[in-house]
Structures are given as C-alpha cells and as structure tokens.
Design brief:
Layout lengths: L5 H5 L15 H9 L17 H11 L5 E4 L6 E4 L16 E7 L4 H13 L1 E4 L2 E4 L2 E5 L5 H14 L4 E4 L3 H11 L5 E5 L4 H11 L3 E4 L3 H13 L5 E4 L6 H19 L11 E2 L4 H5 L4 H17 L4 E4 L4 H14 L12 E5 L8 E5 L2 H13 L4 E6 L6 H7 L4 H10 L10 E4 L7 H8 L2 E4 L7 H8 L7
Bound molecules: iron/sulfur cluster.
Length: 470
Amino acid sequence: MKLRSPMEIWGYLPGTNCGECGEKTCLAFASLLKERKRKLELCTPLFEARYAEKRKRLAELLAPEIREIEIGVGARAKKIGGEDVLHRHELTFFNRTALAYDVWDTMDAEELNERVRRITEWRKFYIGDFLTVDAIAIRSISGDAGRFAECVRAVAAQTDLPIVLCSFDANVLEAGLKEAADRNPLVYAADKANWKEVLGLVKRYKVPVTLFSPDLDTLSSLALTFSSAGVTNLVLDPGTYPTGEGLAESFSRFLRIRRAAILEEKKVVTYPLMAVPLTAWMRYGAENALEASYWEAAIASVFIIKYADIMILHSIEPHSMIAERTLVANIYTDPRRPVSVEPGLREIGAPTEHAPLFLTTNFALTYYTVESDISSNKIDSYLLVVDTEGIGVEAAVAGGQLNVGLIKEALESYKVAEKVNHKTLVIPGLAARLSGETEDATGWTVLVGPRDSGRIPDWMTTNWPPKSGS
Ligand code: SF4
C-alpha cells in the first residue's frame, strides 16, 4: 500500500460524509481502509462517473505491495502474500505462511488415504485457537500422467484442503488439472524448460502457478512473460538448497526478492514466495528420517521468518509440525493488538459456593496458562478474568490497566458475590501491591497467590480454605 496515513486516503474519497459506507465520516472510513477492515466498494458515491479517475488511482494505491493470491475453494481456501512491509512491527503481516505437506503418486491406496487423513485432520490447540495445516502438495514421483491423475482424484475426494500439483512435466500437470481444476489448485512449477506448455495450461484452466528458478534474472524474466500474457496469480520459487553455502544463498535470494519488491518497487517480483524445506530429505534420505525431519524443520523456521508465503514440507511427525505451525502462529500475530480473551467470570470444573475465586487478566497467554494450571490439577474454582486490554499481569499493574477500580467493577458486574459464600479473592503474586487497596475498596479479603500459576496446587495446600479471620 503506497498510502501511509488515513489523511492521504481521505484525499481520494468524495469527502461528503454521507454515511453510505456505514461510517459517520469519510476520515473514519479512510482509517478502516488503511487497516484493511473495509472494502473500497462500500463507498458507493466513489463509483459515480465523476470520481472514476480518483477511484482507479485509489484502488492502485491501496493494493498491497505483494500481490495476494488465493488457492483452494470454500471455507479452507487460503490467501497467501498480500504483505505491505518487510518487518512485522512496521504494520503487521496479514496472511500466515501456508504450510503444505506432501503425498506422492507412488503410495499405495491405503497408505495414501491414511496420510491424507492425518494431514487433513491435524490440529493443535494453541492460545485459544486450533492450529491446522493449510494445504496438501501432491508430487508426481512416477512421471506417469495416468498414475498422477488417479492420485489427485483420490486426494481431492478425501480432503477439502487446498491442493498443490507438483511436476515439471506439463502432461502430468494437465492430467492433475483435469481432475481438480475446480479446486483452484496451485500448479508447481513452470521453469525455463517447460514454461511455454505450463503457461498454456494455466491460462486454459485459470489457476495460479509457481515459477521456479534459482537464477533471479531468469525468475524475473519468467514472471514478466507470464504477467504480460495476463497470468498474474504467480508464486515465485527461487530454490531452497538444504545445506551449507547453497542454503545461505537461498536465504539471500529470498531477502533480495522481497526487498526489491517492497523497497525498490520492482513490480516484476511483487509476488508471494515459495520455499521447499522438503529438500532436506534429498540431502539426508528416508533412511535418516530423524535427521531429515529435524533439518527440514530448521530450514522451515528460517523461511517462515523471512519471507516464505507458502512452503512444501514432508515430515508429519508431531516434533516437526508443532514447531513449524507454532512458529507461524507467533510470527504472524498482529503487533498492534495483544492477543486477548473475553473478560468475565469462568467456572473451572464444577465449583461450589465454597470454591476458591482466582483473578487474572485477559492477556490470552496468561489466561490459558492459568486456566490450564487450575483445570489440569482439577481445582474446581472460579476464575475472574478482568479486562486489562490484553496486557499481562506484571505490565498491567505497572501500566495501570490492572487497578483497584477495575477489580471492584468486575466483582460487581459479574455478580461474583452471588456465586460464592465467602468474600475471599485470590490475586496473582505479581499483583501483590494491589492487595491492601483492593480490600479497602471492595470489602473482600484478598489473598496473594503465587507469582507463577504452576504453583497454585502447592499454594492451595497451605492457604485454602482460608483460616478463619483471614
Ligand atoms: S460512503 Fe464514501 S463519501 Fe460517504 S461517508 Fe463513506 S467514504 Fe465518505
């Protein structure tokens, strides 16, 4: 996006504050456009003939620096690219790196079904959400078009995940496209040898395509050829060499392409990037599966950080998938907003009126840690979650987001006194300095819990139920 402030965007809007977009003013709408929370189409007056020039220019200026493309269809379709910055803290990253795990056309039917099932159903609970896999890459190992088609048909019938069709043979790719073109698969790949045939295919089937070359001049030239022919749903693969100098050079190519796209505005390379950490298996071989999977995850981590928008992987062992997917989740959080949960009064287990009442903040990581420490130790209790704007306990006490007024308000608005027959509140050890003031303001007895919620079970043995008078 070339426009850096809502005021710059506002200059292209009609400026009548008519409210048709649902916002009270054009400036408010401009702020939401900047955050990509509204579509330009909502400003219907801008589509009048007299604003045609401004609308066209604004649409160009609002477009992300890196083209956003979509693979797959339906609920699990996945957007990749669409980024505007080199570093997350400059704004945010918008689309998480898509992780595609492979199957291949020499697998027997049972093995294939089982692997597709495992990939499709994989999920891991993490900070209030389930991490999942983004796509399946179907590789042609046999080189046989009929066998590839059969494999694609079987996979497409079993999963709703987006599909990547992998072969450098245009006949094999076409056999796959005949089976699954309606699933909007990503074709992998066109290179300097097959580009004419693959260009014809992707124009005919209207699907996105990956261009491959470790030589950046060749890669740029392929991108220019495809875009000039009207194919702009492109992904660039500058090669992922698995070890040593080759790996260092691969990383350098990713940096150079993304810097050229965002800082130097070289339009020819403003496309999502593909990494293939699966190449670790070519270095170590299946007979060294553990080393290969470790090294594959290490390569993946390098390119998740900079700047792969999609990658193809092989190991579906938990030690690989959890590490890769968790890293993606962490890199692609929005730095403008702490990850938070809804405030409120939670019941953990089956609390009675005698149950302890703990307090915590609505920073997601804090909340899920405390909730897990209490529930996994089977402590039936109430957990009062207060709205500290997603800030953790220690920082919220220091910054004033966690304060006596907030605690008093939470006790009252969630009608906590109607749930328990005592008036004892357990606050985190990191909020100890609020204890006296909270007792004065609320009339509740305050016990200071441990600094680390993992110690709550120990703390309970000596502190709960509270001794009379405390
Ligand atoms: S619809 Fe367009 S002109 Fe009307 S308030 Fe919204 S941004 Fe302004």
